[in-house]
Amino acid sequence: MIDFIENLKKIILEVIIVLLPLSFLFLILQRYLLKLPKQYTKNLLKGIFLTFVGMILFFQGIDIGFLPAGNSIGIYFGNLKSNWLLIPLGFLMGLLITYADPGVIIICDQIEKASSGFLRSGMVKKILSISVAFFVSLAMIKLVYGIALITIILIGYSIVILLSLISDKEYLAIAFDSGCVVTGPMAVTFLMALSLGAASVIEGRNPLIDGFGLISLIALAPMIPLMIFGLIIRYRGGLTSE
């Protein structure tokens, strides 16, 4: 209980340090430059308060829930004789976590608005979720069978560079932004803990070498399918850059 309270105090202080300067900046801009209606300021203060409470609850939940759970699951499956089960487990976890990630939901909604409804939010979210799931399972293959991370990185980013040379500007921008968004707190906390837990018990694996690197693959995940999707749309006469 004491550890819980101390950790909560630490998180509250960190959230205050993050939000306070940003809040002051918003209020100064509103007071001297924007001068929007008072209702806007009230809504802004309400939003800051809800963000403050939400961040505290979220980070506390990560510390007492996601990180220990991910680590324990990784250790359990890593200790199994059939530790290849980490591969379908990684696919399932990657799919569910990405689909539920708030950052993914936000960017998918923004993509739909920016494209005037041409790129549906649900469709983009499915593409992101499935692609992340595939690359998480690929990371588990790397972990279980000892494949070098550099091999996957070189192949993956070489494909990204080649596709970026022929992709439309809209899909190129969406792909790279999506790659950043899917490496959000949900993926980093749970999936990385899963990977580190498994690497700590699989014979011949080093958590520092084999446990890390997962996030670099998750960042890569949406880029390739989204740019390929853009090329398909171009071929069919859809949304293209001028």
Automatic annotation (TrEMBL):
Query: InterPro entries recorded for this chain?
Result: UmpAB (IPR011435)
The answer on whether this UniProt entry bears the keyword Membrane reads yes
Q: Does the keyword Transmembrane apply?
A: yes
The record's keywords, sorted A to Z, are: Membrane, Transmembrane, Transmembrane helix
- Which domain of life does the UniProt lineage start with? Archaea
| Entries under Pfam families matching the protein | DUF1538 (PF07556)
Q: Give the residue spans that cross the bilayer.
A: 12-32, 44-62, 82-102, 123-141, 147-166, 178-202, 214-233
What name does the UniProt record give this protein? DUF1538 domain-containing protein
Which organism does this sequence originate in?
A: Candidatus Methanofastidiosum methylothiophilum
